Amino acid sequence: MEKMRVGIIGGGLMGREAASAFGRWFVLDDFPVQAELVAVCDLQEKLLDWFRRVPTVRLLTKDHQELLRSPDVDVVYVAVPHNLHEKMYLDVLAARKDLLAEKPFGIDLKSARTIRDAAAKSGRFVRCSSEFPFLPPAQRVIQAVQAGKLGRIMEIRSGFWHASDLDPTKPVNWKRQVKTCGEIGVMGDLGMHAVHVPFRLGWKPLRVYAQLQKIYTQRPDGKGGTAVCDTWDNAMLHTEVKIGNDEVPMRLEMKRLAPGETNTWFIEVLGTEGGVRFSTKEPKTLWVFERQKEQIWQRIDLGHQMAFTTITGGIFEAGFPDCFLQMWAAYAAERAGKLGNRFGCVTPDEAVLSHKLFAAALDSHAKKTAIAL
Ligand SMILES: NC(=O)c1ccc[n+]([C@@H]2O[C@H](COP(=O)([O-])OP(=O)(O)OC[C@H]3O[C@@H](n4cnc5c(N)ncnc54)[C@H](O)[C@@H]3O)[C@@H](O)[C@H]2O)c1
């Protein structure tokens, strides 16, 4: 069986989530690639200590170049603050390793283009992270659109909402400051999650009218003082996409302050004949609309119907660690030429397009006008 030996740079929230996916790789049924976490780089000793409990890890380092020099590493997952994306991603490519990049794939449009061009020149296999589309109800939304059964599409809504920033006592972190998160703020944090499915279905914005909000402009610094929060907190992007001969409204929502929404990813597509709707708020529920003599919204409970089947029982609910494992399975399968017609991870071109949209959104908000893409 083909092996994919992975190194992680950035062992924080997402680095450890990735370790958890590799740790239970064996749940994938008849999967053609065996993934193994072999090396980890982080600046924090306590995180390197955490990775000591992963038996396959042979190299722990604070120097990412040491990890990149290791001949044991085939693929590198980089999960570091956005201001470090460009340098780290270019270093991975220069070391002739494949890359699963974290979003937003560079701190801004210029950076994303530089990475995309370097990736193309290197010939390495590069994709960007976005895991929610791999949940079973999200896959069914994609299939319903691709089956063409919705009639004339009238409206699309896709978004990702968080709530914890509503608490003004939550301390600042790198995601709340332009110098480390980027000027695009919440769009860089949550935007890739909102655009992955629409872009892959061919819905690319013609123009955008953006409403951006900075709601809390300072927070506790965690050391007894206060710190500036200068990134955008909430973003509503009103766009139009071309479907057939029609221009169809598509609203993309990214919010750090959405009351009560812990980690709510959602997508809704409404057509003249049918509609589909899924939100992680109801994690196993797919809503399907049918226009018959009467108009009916039906709810279907879905279990573990994954694109890459696992040993988990079909009636058991899927959650965040499951879609993250599926995303990695899609990466490994595509890298091995075995994705088939399954849904794949975000491509470098899609990542650049997301940055084009977010840059246009900044422009739109500043000028209070719609900006053509
Ligand atoms: N896909 C998702 O659902 C998802 C969720 C959260 C964050 N993210 C993305 O993942 C990335 C990381 O976010 P996070 O929440 O894991 O952040 P985090 O702050 O929890 O972890 C970042 C880690 O990078 C380490 N680091 C910083 N500089 C480094 C260096 N020079 N060398 C090695 N390590 C270094 C830090 O010590 C820290 O442990 C970001 O791009 C973020 O947007 C993705």
Write the layout of secondary structure elements.
Blueprint: E1 2-9, H1 13-23, E2 33-41, H2 45-51, E3 59-61, H3 64-69, E4 75-78, H4 85-94, E5 98-101, H5 109-122, E6 126-128, H6 136-146, E7 153-161, H7 178-181, H8 186-200, E8 207-213, E9 218-220, E10 226-228, E11 234-243, E12 246-255, E13 264-271, E14 274-279, E15 285-291, E16 295-301, H9 320-335, H10 348-367, E17 371-372
Helix pairs in contact: 1-9, 4-5, 5-10, 8-10
Notable features of this structure?
binds nicotinamide-adenine-dinucleotide, 373 residues, globular, 6-stranded parallel β-sheet, 10 helices, 9-stranded mixed β-sheet, alpha/beta
By secondary-structure content and strand pairing, the structural class works out as alpha/beta
Number of strands: 17
Q: Can you count the helices?
A: 10
Order of helices and strands: EHEHEHEHEHEHEHHEEEEEEEEEHHE
Q: Strand portion, in percent?
A: 25-35%
The CA-CA distance between the termini, in Å, is 45 Å
Query: Strand order within the widest sheet?
Result: 16-15-14-13-7-12-11-8-17
Assign an overall shape: globular
Average per-residue pLDDT, rounded, comes to 97
**Rg estimate, integer Å:** 21 Å
- Uncertain spans: none
Largest sheet: 9 strands, mixed
Percent helix among the residues? 25-40%
Bound molecules: nicotinamide-adenine-dinucleotide
Task: Write a structural description.
- The chain is α/β, with parallel strands linked by helices and 373 residues long.
- It has 10 helices and 17 strands.
- The chain has helices at 13-23, 45-51, 64-69, 85-94, 109-122, 136-146, 178-181, 186-200, 320-335, 348-367; strands spanning 2-9, 33-41, 59-61, 75-78, 98-101, 126-128, 153-161, 207-213, 218-220, 226-228, 234-243, 246-255, 264-271, 274-279, 285-291, 295-301, 371-372.
- The strands form 3 sheets. A 9-stranded mixed β-sheet has the order 16-15-14-13-7-12-11-8-17.
- A hairpin with a 5-residue loop joins strand 14 and strand 15 (285-291).
- The longest helix is centred in the last third of the chain and has 20 residues, at 348-367.
- The termini are far apart.
- The model has no long low-confidence stretch (mean pLDDT 97).
